[in-house]
Amino acid sequence: MQLQQVSSAAADGCGFSVWRTAPALSVWLCAFGLVVSCSSTIQPAPADARSAQTPAPTVVTNASPIEVPLAPSVALLPRQLVATGLANPRGMYLQSDGSLLVAVAGTGDPKDPLTGGILRLHDANGDGDFDDPDERKALLDRQPSRNLFDLVRRDEVFGMSGMAFGGGELLVSLANFGGPSKLFSISGDAVQPWSNTSGNVNDLDYDARRKVWVGVASTTDELVELPPGGRAQRIAKFPPLQSGQDAVPAYLHYDPYSGDVLVTLFSGSPEGEEGGKGVELIARAASIVSVHAETRSVTPAVVALTVPTDLELDPQGAIYVLEFCDAFIEPITSREQMQAGPLHGGFKRFSGRLLRVDRINRTVSVVAQGLDAPTNLTLANGYLYIAQGMGTPGRLIPRPDGTSAPLTGFIERIKL
Ligand SMILES: [Ca+2]
Ligand SMILES: [Ca+2]
Ligand SMILES: [Ca+2]
Protein backbone atom coordinates (compact mmCIF):
# COMPACT_ATOMS: atom_id res chain seq x y z
CA MET A 1 0.00 0.00 0.00
CA GLN A 2 1.26 3.45 -0.87
CA LEU A 3 1.50 5.58 2.19
CA GLN A 4 1.02 9.25 2.31
CA GLN A 5 3.00 11.51 4.47
CA VAL A 6 0.71 13.34 6.82
CA SER A 7 1.76 16.56 8.38
CA SER A 8 1.27 17.04 12.06
CA ALA A 9 0.72 20.73 11.46
CA ALA A 10 -1.06 22.06 14.44
CA ALA A 11 -3.95 24.41 14.80
CA ASP A 12 -2.75 25.66 18.13
CA GLY A 13 0.52 26.97 16.79
CA CYS A 14 2.39 24.75 19.16
CA GLY A 15 2.47 21.54 17.21
CA PHE A 16 0.60 19.42 19.72
CA SER A 17 -3.00 19.55 18.66
CA VAL A 18 -2.80 15.82 18.03
CA TRP A 19 -2.36 15.28 21.76
CA ARG A 20 -6.05 15.51 22.39
CA THR A 21 -6.01 13.63 25.63
CA ALA A 22 -3.42 15.78 27.34
CA PRO A 23 -3.84 19.45 26.59
CA ALA A 24 -1.47 20.29 29.40
CA LEU A 25 1.39 18.92 27.33
CA SER A 26 1.34 21.69 24.77
CA VAL A 27 1.13 24.24 27.52
CA TRP A 28 4.07 22.70 29.28
CA LEU A 29 6.27 22.47 26.25
CA CYS A 30 5.30 25.87 24.96
CA ALA A 31 6.21 27.30 28.30
CA PHE A 32 9.73 26.12 27.68
CA GLY A 33 9.79 27.82 24.31
CA LEU A 34 10.29 24.62 22.40
CA VAL A 35 9.79 24.87 18.69
CA VAL A 36 8.16 21.93 17.04
CA SER A 37 8.83 20.65 13.59
CA CYS A 38 5.49 19.99 12.01
CA SER A 39 6.45 17.44 9.41
CA SER A 40 7.06 13.76 9.96
CA THR A 41 10.39 13.39 8.25
CA ILE A 42 11.33 9.86 7.33
CA GLN A 43 15.00 9.18 7.37
CA PRO A 44 16.68 6.49 5.30
CA ALA A 45 17.64 3.53 7.38
CA PRO A 46 20.91 4.15 9.17
CA ALA A 47 23.75 1.68 8.91
CA ASP A 48 22.87 -0.33 11.96
CA ALA A 49 22.64 -4.09 12.19
CA ARG A 50 18.99 -4.04 13.21
CA SER A 51 17.86 -1.69 10.52
CA ALA A 52 19.51 -3.63 7.72
CA GLN A 53 16.09 -5.19 7.10
CA THR A 54 14.38 -1.83 6.90
CA PRO A 55 12.76 -1.36 3.50
CA ALA A 56 12.94 1.85 1.49
CA PRO A 57 11.75 4.83 3.50
CA THR A 58 8.12 4.74 2.45
CA VAL A 59 6.45 4.17 5.80
CA VAL A 60 5.12 7.41 7.11
CA THR A 61 4.35 8.35 10.64
CA ASN A 62 0.87 9.73 10.59
CA ALA A 63 -0.19 12.79 12.48
CA SER A 64 -3.22 11.16 13.99
CA PRO A 65 -2.55 8.37 16.48
CA ILE A 66 -3.81 4.85 15.96
CA GLU A 67 -6.42 3.98 18.58
CA VAL A 68 -6.61 0.47 19.99
CA PRO A 69 -10.25 -0.64 19.54
CA LEU A 70 -12.22 -1.89 22.54
CA ALA A 71 -12.30 -5.33 20.92
CA PRO A 72 -9.43 -5.66 18.46
CA SER A 73 -9.46 -8.54 16.01
CA VAL A 74 -7.77 -11.64 17.39
CA ALA A 75 -5.18 -13.38 15.23
CA LEU A 76 -3.28 -15.54 17.69
CA LEU A 77 0.09 -16.89 16.68
CA PRO A 78 1.45 -20.19 18.05
CA ARG A 79 3.57 -19.86 21.17
CA GLN A 80 6.49 -21.99 22.25
CA LEU A 81 7.81 -22.10 25.81
CA VAL A 82 11.60 -21.89 25.65
CA ALA A 83 12.74 -21.18 29.23
CA THR A 84 11.19 -21.58 32.68
CA GLY A 85 12.27 -21.11 36.29
CA LEU A 86 13.89 -17.73 35.77
CA ALA A 87 13.78 -15.08 38.51
CA ASN A 88 12.14 -12.15 36.73
CA PRO A 89 13.53 -12.37 33.20
CA ARG A 90 13.73 -8.97 31.54
CA GLY A 91 15.86 -7.75 28.64
CA MET A 92 16.95 -10.38 26.11
CA TYR A 93 19.31 -10.59 23.16
CA LEU A 94 19.72 -13.49 20.73
CA GLN A 95 23.33 -14.03 19.77
CA SER A 96 24.48 -15.25 16.38
CA ASP A 97 25.27 -18.70 17.79
CA GLY A 98 21.64 -19.08 18.89
CA SER A 99 22.28 -18.48 22.57
CA LEU A 100 19.92 -16.13 24.35
CA LEU A 101 21.24 -13.57 26.80
CA VAL A 102 18.73 -12.70 29.51
CA ALA A 103 18.90 -10.06 32.21
CA VAL A 104 17.20 -11.33 35.35
CA ALA A 105 15.95 -8.85 37.96
CA GLY A 106 16.16 -11.48 40.71
CA THR A 107 13.77 -12.62 43.41
CA GLY A 108 13.24 -9.33 45.26
CA ASP A 109 13.81 -11.18 48.54
CA PRO A 110 15.22 -8.80 51.20
CA LYS A 111 16.93 -11.76 52.92
CA ASP A 112 19.01 -12.25 49.80
CA PRO A 113 19.07 -8.87 48.04
CA LEU A 114 21.68 -9.75 45.40
CA THR A 115 19.91 -12.24 43.14
CA GLY A 116 19.97 -10.32 39.84
CA GLY A 117 22.33 -10.93 36.96
CA ILE A 118 22.80 -11.84 33.32
CA LEU A 119 22.43 -15.39 32.03
CA ARG A 120 23.50 -16.95 28.76
CA LEU A 121 21.04 -19.67 27.74
CA HIS A 122 22.20 -22.20 25.18
CA ASP A 123 20.16 -25.11 23.83
CA ALA A 124 22.98 -27.63 24.12
CA ASN A 125 20.83 -30.70 23.42
CA GLY A 126 18.98 -29.06 20.55
CA ASP A 127 15.48 -29.88 21.83
CA GLY A 128 14.22 -26.33 21.38
CA ASP A 129 14.37 -25.14 24.98
CA PHE A 130 16.91 -23.73 27.40
CA ASP A 131 15.76 -25.80 30.39
CA ASP A 132 18.13 -28.77 30.39
CA PRO A 133 21.22 -29.30 32.54
CA ASP A 134 24.24 -27.26 31.52
CA GLU A 135 22.20 -24.93 29.34
CA ARG A 136 22.64 -21.84 31.54
CA LYS A 137 25.67 -19.83 32.47
CA ALA A 138 25.80 -16.69 34.60
CA LEU A 139 27.77 -13.90 32.94
CA LEU A 140 27.04 -11.58 35.85
CA ASP A 141 25.56 -12.32 39.25
CA ARG A 142 25.08 -10.78 42.70
CA GLN A 143 23.18 -7.73 41.38
CA PRO A 144 20.62 -5.87 43.51
CA SER A 145 17.00 -7.02 43.40
CA ARG A 146 14.18 -5.26 45.19
CA ASN A 147 10.46 -5.83 45.57
CA LEU A 148 8.51 -2.56 45.61
CA PHE A 149 5.33 -4.00 47.11
CA ASP A 150 5.80 -1.94 50.29
CA LEU A 151 5.64 1.21 48.12
CA VAL A 152 3.14 0.33 45.42
CA ARG A 153 1.27 -2.60 47.05
CA ARG A 154 1.80 -4.71 43.97
CA ASP A 155 4.23 -7.59 43.59
CA GLU A 156 6.76 -5.74 41.49
CA VAL A 157 10.46 -6.61 41.33
CA PHE A 158 13.12 -4.15 40.23
CA GLY A 159 16.69 -4.89 39.22
CA MET A 160 18.46 -5.80 35.99
CA SER A 161 16.21 -4.62 33.19
CA GLY A 162 16.52 -3.57 29.55
CA MET A 163 19.06 -4.93 27.07
CA ALA A 164 19.70 -3.69 23.55
CA PHE A 165 22.26 -3.85 20.75
CA GLY A 166 23.34 -0.93 18.60
CA GLY A 167 26.39 0.84 17.25
CA GLY A 168 28.44 -2.31 17.78
CA GLU A 169 27.65 -2.50 21.47
CA LEU A 170 25.36 -4.61 23.61
CA LEU A 171 24.20 -2.78 26.73
CA VAL A 172 22.09 -3.75 29.70
CA SER A 173 20.77 -1.61 32.52
CA LEU A 174 20.44 -2.17 36.24
CA ALA A 175 17.44 -0.10 37.28
CA ASN A 176 17.79 0.76 40.91
CA PHE A 177 14.47 2.15 42.04
CA GLY A 178 15.01 5.87 42.55
CA GLY A 179 18.46 5.53 40.98
CA PRO A 180 21.28 5.67 40.42
CA SER A 181 21.29 3.12 37.62
CA LYS A 182 24.26 1.22 36.29
CA LEU A 183 24.78 0.33 32.67
CA PHE A 184 26.93 -2.60 31.61
CA SER A 185 28.31 -3.63 28.23
CA ILE A 186 28.47 -7.28 27.24
CA SER A 187 31.13 -8.61 24.89
CA GLY A 188 31.32 -12.37 24.52
CA ASP A 189 30.98 -13.65 28.06
CA ALA A 190 32.57 -10.53 29.54
CA VAL A 191 30.45 -7.91 31.28
CA GLN A 192 32.00 -4.50 31.93
CA PRO A 193 30.64 -1.35 33.59
CA TRP A 194 29.68 1.20 30.93
CA SER A 195 28.28 4.08 32.98
CA ASN A 196 26.57 5.11 36.17
CA THR A 197 23.70 7.48 35.91
CA SER A 198 21.10 9.13 38.08
CA GLY A 199 17.50 8.03 37.73
CA ASN A 200 16.02 4.64 37.20
CA VAL A 201 16.82 3.50 33.65
CA ASN A 202 14.30 0.75 33.09
CA ASP A 203 14.93 0.39 29.36
CA LEU A 204 17.44 1.61 26.83
CA ASP A 205 18.00 1.54 23.10
CA TYR A 206 20.41 2.81 20.47
CA ASP A 207 19.23 5.82 18.48
CA ALA A 208 20.78 4.87 15.15
CA ARG A 209 20.03 8.24 13.54
CA ARG A 210 21.81 10.28 16.18
CA LYS A 211 24.26 7.49 17.09
CA VAL A 212 23.62 7.83 20.81
CA TRP A 213 22.13 5.63 23.50
CA VAL A 214 18.81 6.66 24.99
CA GLY A 215 16.85 5.43 27.96
CA VAL A 216 13.71 5.97 29.96
CA ALA A 217 13.89 6.99 33.60
CA SER A 218 10.59 5.93 35.10
CA THR A 219 11.03 7.57 38.47
CA THR A 220 11.48 11.03 36.93
CA ASP A 221 9.26 10.48 33.87
CA GLU A 222 12.04 11.36 31.46
CA LEU A 223 13.52 10.26 28.17
CA VAL A 224 17.26 10.66 28.57
CA GLU A 225 20.41 10.45 26.52
CA LEU A 226 23.01 8.07 27.95
CA PRO A 227 26.58 9.09 27.19
CA PRO A 228 29.28 6.48 27.77
CA GLY A 229 30.73 6.84 31.23
CA GLY A 230 28.61 9.88 31.94
CA ARG A 231 25.42 11.01 33.47
CA ALA A 232 22.08 10.93 31.72
CA GLN A 233 20.92 14.11 30.03
CA ARG A 234 17.25 14.90 29.66
CA ILE A 235 15.72 14.82 26.18
CA ALA A 236 12.10 15.14 27.26
CA LYS A 237 10.11 15.09 30.47
CA PHE A 238 6.63 13.66 30.17
CA PRO A 239 3.97 15.73 31.93
CA PRO A 240 1.09 14.14 33.84
CA LEU A 241 -1.76 12.61 31.87
CA GLN A 242 -5.24 14.09 31.68
CA SER A 243 -6.52 12.39 34.81
CA GLY A 244 -3.53 13.60 36.76
CA GLN A 245 -1.66 10.31 36.86
CA ASP A 246 2.03 10.24 36.05
CA ALA A 247 2.87 9.47 32.45
CA VAL A 248 5.48 6.92 33.47
CA PRO A 249 7.77 6.12 30.52
CA ALA A 250 8.26 2.39 30.72
CA TYR A 251 10.04 1.09 27.61
CA LEU A 252 11.34 2.49 24.37
CA HIS A 253 12.44 1.56 20.88
CA TYR A 254 14.18 3.51 18.16
CA ASP A 255 11.96 3.94 15.09
CA PRO A 256 14.02 3.79 11.88
CA TYR A 257 10.97 4.94 9.90
CA SER A 258 10.80 8.34 11.57
CA GLY A 259 14.20 8.71 13.16
CA ASP A 260 12.32 9.28 16.43
CA VAL A 261 12.16 7.22 19.58
CA LEU A 262 8.94 5.42 20.46
CA VAL A 263 8.19 5.38 24.18
CA THR A 264 5.46 3.48 25.99
CA LEU A 265 3.78 5.66 28.59
CA PHE A 266 2.46 3.42 31.31
CA SER A 267 -0.33 5.36 32.98
CA GLY A 268 0.42 5.59 36.65
CA SER A 269 -2.08 5.65 39.48
CA PRO A 270 -4.23 8.80 39.69
CA GLU A 271 -3.42 8.73 43.43
CA GLY A 272 0.34 8.70 42.76
CA GLU A 273 2.39 5.52 42.81
CA GLU A 274 2.53 5.43 46.58
CA GLY A 275 -1.02 6.68 47.18
CA GLY A 276 -4.41 5.02 47.06
CA LYS A 277 -4.90 1.31 47.56
CA GLY A 278 -2.61 0.16 44.81
CA VAL A 279 -5.44 -0.92 42.55
CA GLU A 280 -6.23 2.39 40.88
CA LEU A 281 -5.86 1.86 37.17
CA ILE A 282 -7.39 3.86 34.38
CA ALA A 283 -7.82 1.41 31.54
CA ARG A 284 -6.97 2.62 28.03
CA ALA A 285 -5.28 5.77 29.38
CA ALA A 286 -1.80 4.77 28.24
CA SER A 287 -0.08 5.31 24.93
CA ILE A 288 2.98 5.03 22.74
CA VAL A 289 4.43 8.40 21.90
CA SER A 290 7.02 9.35 19.31
CA VAL A 291 9.71 11.69 20.58
CA HIS A 292 11.86 13.77 18.24
CA ALA A 293 15.07 14.50 20.09
CA GLU A 294 16.02 17.86 18.58
CA THR A 295 12.60 19.51 18.77
CA ARG A 296 11.53 17.55 21.85
CA SER A 297 8.15 17.10 20.22
CA VAL A 298 6.06 14.37 21.79
CA THR A 299 3.46 12.98 19.40
CA PRO A 300 1.00 10.21 20.25
CA ALA A 301 1.48 7.24 17.92
CA VAL A 302 -0.81 4.63 19.53
CA VAL A 303 -3.49 5.46 22.09
CA ALA A 304 -6.01 3.58 24.26
CA LEU A 305 -3.46 1.13 25.61
CA THR A 306 -3.57 -0.30 29.12
CA VAL A 307 -0.28 -0.70 31.01
CA PRO A 308 1.98 -1.05 27.96
CA THR A 309 5.43 -2.45 28.58
CA ASP A 310 8.01 -3.28 25.90
CA LEU A 311 7.65 -2.79 22.16
CA GLU A 312 9.33 -4.01 18.98
CA LEU A 313 9.14 -3.16 15.29
CA ASP A 314 8.97 -5.72 12.49
CA PRO A 315 10.50 -5.26 9.02
CA GLN A 316 7.19 -3.82 7.76
CA GLY A 317 7.31 -1.16 10.44
CA ALA A 318 4.46 -2.69 12.43
CA ILE A 319 4.67 -2.09 16.17
CA TYR A 320 4.34 -5.03 18.53
CA VAL A 321 3.50 -3.85 22.03
CA LEU A 322 2.92 -5.77 25.24
CA GLU A 323 0.15 -4.92 27.66
CA PHE A 324 1.20 -6.07 31.12
CA CYS A 325 -2.27 -6.84 32.56
CA ASP A 326 -5.83 -5.60 32.24
CA ALA A 327 -6.59 -4.87 35.91
CA PHE A 328 -4.97 -4.17 39.26
CA ILE A 329 -6.57 -6.49 41.85
CA GLU A 330 -5.81 -8.03 45.25
CA PRO A 331 -3.10 -5.61 46.37
CA ILE A 332 -0.66 -6.78 49.01
CA THR A 333 0.37 -5.05 52.19
CA SER A 334 2.71 -7.61 53.73
CA ARG A 335 5.10 -10.31 52.66
CA GLU A 336 3.16 -12.81 54.80
CA GLN A 337 -0.01 -12.03 52.92
CA MET A 338 1.83 -12.48 49.65
CA GLN A 339 3.09 -15.90 50.71
CA ALA A 340 -0.30 -17.03 52.05
CA GLY A 341 -1.74 -17.02 48.49
CA PRO A 342 -2.99 -17.84 46.04
CA LEU A 343 -3.69 -14.25 45.08
CA HIS A 344 -3.05 -11.90 42.24
CA GLY A 345 -0.99 -9.52 44.37
CA GLY A 346 -1.86 -6.28 42.60
CA PHE A 347 -1.42 -7.24 38.97
CA LYS A 348 -4.11 -9.50 37.54
CA ARG A 349 -2.17 -12.60 36.52
CA PHE A 350 -2.37 -14.06 33.02
CA SER A 351 -4.25 -11.02 31.71
CA GLY A 352 -1.48 -9.58 29.54
CA ARG A 353 -1.49 -9.57 25.78
CA LEU A 354 0.59 -8.74 22.74
CA LEU A 355 -0.82 -6.35 20.16
CA ARG A 356 0.27 -5.86 16.57
CA VAL A 357 -0.21 -2.30 15.37
CA ASP A 358 -0.08 -2.15 11.59
CA ARG A 359 1.00 1.38 10.75
CA ILE A 360 0.28 0.96 7.04
CA ASN A 361 -3.35 -0.18 7.29
CA ARG A 362 -3.87 1.44 10.70
CA THR A 363 -5.26 -1.73 12.25
CA VAL A 364 -4.64 -3.38 15.62
CA SER A 365 -4.84 -7.10 16.33
CA VAL A 366 -4.20 -9.33 19.31
CA VAL A 367 -1.49 -11.87 18.49
CA ALA A 368 -1.07 -13.33 21.99
CA GLN A 369 -3.29 -13.22 25.07
CA GLY A 370 -3.35 -14.70 28.55
CA LEU A 371 0.27 -13.66 29.03
CA ASP A 372 1.42 -13.59 32.65
CA ALA A 373 2.75 -10.14 33.52
CA PRO A 374 4.91 -9.76 30.39
CA THR A 375 7.64 -7.15 30.58
CA ASN A 376 10.14 -7.45 27.74
CA LEU A 377 10.03 -8.21 24.06
CA THR A 378 12.82 -8.99 21.61
CA LEU A 379 12.56 -9.69 17.88
CA ALA A 380 15.25 -11.94 16.46
CA ASN A 381 15.42 -14.31 13.48
CA GLY A 382 11.69 -13.94 12.83
CA TYR A 383 10.73 -14.79 16.41
CA LEU A 384 9.39 -12.52 19.13
CA TYR A 385 10.69 -13.54 22.55
CA ILE A 386 8.42 -12.55 25.44
CA ALA A 387 9.72 -12.41 29.02
CA GLN A 388 6.94 -13.05 31.55
CA GLY A 389 6.24 -13.83 35.18
CA MET A 390 7.03 -10.61 37.04
CA GLY A 391 6.82 -11.03 40.79
CA THR A 392 7.94 -13.16 43.69
CA PRO A 393 9.03 -16.58 42.39
CA GLY A 394 7.34 -19.50 44.10
CA ARG A 395 4.34 -17.75 45.62
CA LEU A 396 0.98 -19.15 44.58
CA ILE A 397 -0.94 -17.25 41.92
CA PRO A 398 -4.39 -17.91 40.42
CA ARG A 399 -4.51 -19.38 36.96
CA PRO A 400 -7.24 -18.57 34.45
CA ASP A 401 -8.70 -22.09 34.76
CA GLY A 402 -9.39 -21.60 38.49
CA THR A 403 -6.42 -23.61 39.71
CA SER A 404 -3.31 -22.06 41.21
CA ALA A 405 0.37 -22.49 40.48
CA PRO A 406 3.67 -21.18 41.79
CA LEU A 407 4.74 -17.94 40.14
CA THR A 408 7.69 -18.46 37.84
CA GLY A 409 9.57 -16.34 35.36
CA PHE A 410 9.58 -17.75 31.84
CA ILE A 411 10.16 -16.92 28.20
CA GLU A 412 7.91 -17.82 25.30
CA ARG A 413 8.54 -17.15 21.65
CA ILE A 414 6.21 -16.51 18.76
CA LYS A 415 7.08 -17.08 15.11
CA LEU A 416 6.05 -14.12 12.99
CA1 LIG B 1 17.48 -27.82 25.58
CA1 LIG C 1 14.37 -29.62 27.34
CA1 LIG D 1 12.77 -1.94 24.49
Name the descriptors.
single chain, 416 residues, mainly beta, Neuraminidase, 5-stranded mixed β-sheet, 3 helices, 32 strands, binds calcium ion
> What percentage of amino acids are in beta strands?
35-45%
Poorly predicted segments: 1-57
Bound molecules: calcium ion
Annotated CATH topology: Neuraminidase
Major sheet: arrangement of strands: 1-21-20-19-18
Please report the number of helical segments: 3
> How far is the N terminus from the C terminus?
20 Å
The overall pLDDT average reads 85
Our Rg estimate from Cα atoms comes to 20 Å
Q: Shape, please?
A: globular
CATH architecture: 6 Propeller
Strand tally is: 32
CATH superfamily: TolB, C-terminal domain
Number of domains: 1
Helix content: under 10%
What is the CATH C-level name?
Answer: Mainly Beta
Alpha-beta content class: mainly beta
